[in-house]
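Supplementary material to the annual report.
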Amino acid sequence: MFDRELLERPSTEVAPLLLGALLTVGDVTVRLTEVEAYLGELDPGSHAFRGPGRRNAVMYGEAGHLYTYFTYGMHVCANVTCSPAGVASAVLLRAGEVVAGLETARMRRATSKTDADLARGPARLCVALGITLDDGGVDLATGRVRLDLPAHAQEFVTGPRTGVSGAGGSDIYPWRFWIPGDPTVSPYKRSVPKKRN
DNA sequence: GTCGAGATTATCT
DNA sequence: GATAATCTCGACC
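Predicted assembly:
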């Protein structure tokens, strides 16, 4: 199902709704297992922090569209825009599990040795699905990229990094959400480097 | 399995 | 010219 009204909320509320959702592009379908909320203009880490630009124009548009961007020259990341038009807000898709089109995904991600690696990471997710800058701005209800929200709320946990409680006032964007126990989630760098002897 | 450094291009100041 | 929401590879335990 796809209900745009569900997406017209703050990204921190939309993020958990996207967990378990199915994202389909062509022959490949991915079940989202990890996402991260971005609050546009309020988030210093967001591309929209300094105001509207070419790249982030989609984030200011209607909810339920795909926002793609290029980073480090080699990687593409995908976001789902949320909040009503005029508000820059989006949810970054960080990881997922390939549930259909495995063969296609494997070909695209030749460097991945296991299926769990196919869409483990924002840029990898896009490669596995075949998402490019060309797909930016498409409507997720009718475009080449389709979003299918889960019928029931998914169980999820958030990542307030190593139990940051105070939030003293430095990092204001620890809004990471993922499905606990999923092998395709967050195997990448830890937020807190472990100290070696 | 885990840590550390480098690569590479679109976009904005 | 500076910046960026990352990935891959090599070294070590």
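The longest helix of chain A spans residues 11-18.
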